[in-house]
């Protein structure tokens, strides 16, 4: 298996956290101290993102499910709980459909879109990548040092840019600009990455960010189609990546979602 970089901390049943496209495992840092007293938490850099090497098996959903199956076995996790944001939410649902996990919590998952919504979302992601690649370091640091500047840089992604630190914004920009998995993942998304399966036999929680400006929230009937028994929630005050916006709320959703399988 390709080398997958991850961090592991805490006590209890294993909970694997999966970030979105262009992001990194540190996206979950705001909630870790709230989770680790209750769960054995593994935050993973997807192949081609963060510090993980590109994936020789490709970047589609099937390749990711295969990779995580091997990862779970290699680290003795059995069937862990899994939670993900955006692309990570889509992969979490796919892992649930494959019967590889004990519970699924998906935060604003990708892949539940209409073709028009998909084109918009991918366009926004490409725009953010282009900005990250081309903005001079000095300009980015000057903007990241003020609440107004952080809003310019991150306002489409998070609901509370003022709660980000300059360091986190700069590190996220570098991660987005440099991740080799970004373009092949979006190429895969153009031809697929829609979740059309059904997750049965494991508890599912789907929590959508109230201020999500990347992915539109599907109707409840559509969410029930893919997960008939799902707990459906709205993350009030949160943007597409909600962990830094309301860490206590997100941590509670993750803990309660995984508790439904206990």
Automatic annotation (TrEMBL):
- Spell out the Pfam families in the cross-references: Abhydrolase_6 (PF12697)
GO MF terms, alphabetically ordered: hydrolase activity
Q: Which Gene3D superfamilies match?
A: alpha/beta hydrolase
Q: Which residues cross the membrane?
A: none
Native organism is Amycolatopsis azurea DSM 43854
The chain positions of domain AB hydrolase-1 read 15-252
Keywords recorded for this protein, A-Z: Hydrolase
Q: What protein name applies here?
A: Alpha/beta hydrolase
């Amino acid at each position: 298996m390709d080398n997958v970089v991850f961090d592991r901390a805490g006590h209890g049943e294993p909970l694997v956290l999966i970030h979105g496209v262009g992001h990194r495992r540190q996206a979950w840092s705001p909630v870790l101290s709230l989770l680790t007293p209750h769960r054995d938490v593994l935050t993973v850099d997807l192949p081609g993102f963060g510090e993980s090497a590109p994936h020789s098996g490709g970047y589609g959903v099937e390749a990711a499910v295969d990779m995580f199956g091997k990862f779970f076995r290699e680290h003795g996790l059995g069937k862990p709980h899994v939670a993900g944001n955006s692309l990570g939410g889509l992969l979490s649902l796919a892992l649930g459909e494959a019967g590889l996990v004990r519970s699924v919590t998906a935060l604003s998952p990708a892949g539940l879109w209409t073709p028009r919504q998909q084109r918009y979302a991918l366009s926004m992601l490409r725009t953010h990548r282009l900005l990250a690649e081309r903005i001079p370091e000095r300009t980015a640091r000057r903007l990241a040092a003020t609440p107004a500047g952080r809003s310019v840089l991150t306002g489409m992604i998070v609901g509370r840019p003022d709660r980000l630190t300059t360091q986190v914004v700069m590190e996220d920009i570098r991660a987005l600009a440099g991740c080799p998995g970004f373009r092949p993942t979006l190429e895969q998304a153009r031809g697929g990455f829609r979740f059309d399966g059904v997750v049965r036999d494991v508890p599912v929680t789907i929590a959508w960010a109230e201020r999500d400006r990347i992915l539109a929230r599907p109707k409840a009937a559509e969410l029930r189609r893919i997960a008939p028994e799902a707990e459906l929630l709205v993350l009030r005050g949160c943007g597409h990546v909600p962990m830094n916006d309301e860490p206590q709320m997100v941590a509670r959703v993750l803990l309660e979602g995984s508790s439904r399988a206990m």
